[in-house]
Amino acid sequence: MKKTKTFDLKAVAFPLLFAAIAVAGFVYRADIAGFFRNRDSVREWIRGLGALGPLAFIGLQILQVVVFVIPGELTQATGGFVFGFWAGTALSLAGIAIGSMLNYVVGRFLGRPFVLAALGQERLERAEGVLANRKAEAGYFLLFLVPGIPKDILCYLAGMAKAPPAVFLAASMIARLPGLAGSTLIGTATFSGRLDVALAILVAAALALVAGIVWRKPLEAG
């Protein structure tokens, strides 16, 4: 008897999620662009919430991780612009940590078909190779450190691989911290009128990105 192919919802879950995000982004594109275009209005809106302002920003960071097409650098710079460097960095870390764990749970529940659709065959195999050749802590730290794989989507991989949550979260947050701090500092420098500092950070980030691309393969294989 011939086996009939069954419809695998997990395999199409990521394309459906991406399509839903794309549609929502298109429908609300004017509101989203307007929100981030005027930094002063964002600052006043968050500060106008009083004690709820930091929680609102953490919620914004969680949304950025879950709706992974929103550039993290944009929301992180907003944190520096609104709260200053230290508070902005701390609040961004909190929001990103919560969002990362939400994505981790999704990856653990939906498994390999979902992650394969999210990363693609080549990226998934490369990531699994890194994890197989290293201790878990070093593997996840390296994956989140080097460029080439979307960091928010890597959280799905960690869930699929059933990484110990504490190991995954610690390694990913430490690896994200330099970039997060840099983006936050750009926001702080921009608010203070120190565009020279913001430009210097952007140049340093660009050089780090180029270095990461050049040394990515030796790092992954080493």
In terms of topology, how is this protein built?
Elements: H1 9-27, H2 29-37, H3 39-48, H4 53-66, H5 72-83, H6 85-119, H7 121-133, H8 136-145, H9 151-160, H10 165-191, H11 195-221
Helix pairs in contact: 1-6, 3-4, 4-5, 4-6, 5-6, 5-10, 6-7, 6-9, 6-10, 7-8, 8-10, 10-11
Question: Would you kindly provide a written description of the structure presented here, covering whatever features stand out?
Answer:
- There is one protein chain.
- This protein has one domain (9-221).
- It has eleven helices and no strands.
- Helix 5 (72-83) packs antiparallel against helix 6 (85-119), helix 8 packs parallel to helix 10 and helix 10 runs antiparallel to helix 11 (195-221).
- The chain has helices at residues 9-27, 29-37, 39-48, 53-66, 72-83, 85-119, 121-133, 136-145, 151-160, 165-191, 195-221.
- It is 84% helix and 0% strand.
- The protein is mainly α and 222 residues long.
Provide the gyration radius in Å.
19 Å
Main sheet: strands, sense, barrel: none
Task: Tell me the β content.
Answer: under 5%
Structural class: mainly alpha
Number of beta strands? 0
Work out the count of structural domains.
1
Helix coverage percent:
over 70%
What's the helix count? 11
Order of helices and strands: HHHHHHHHHHH
Q: What shape does the CA trace take? A: globular
What is the distance, rounded to the nearest whole angstrom, between the alpha carbons of the first and last residues? 49 Å
Low-pLDDT parts are none
Mean pLDDT: 77
The oligomeric state is single chain
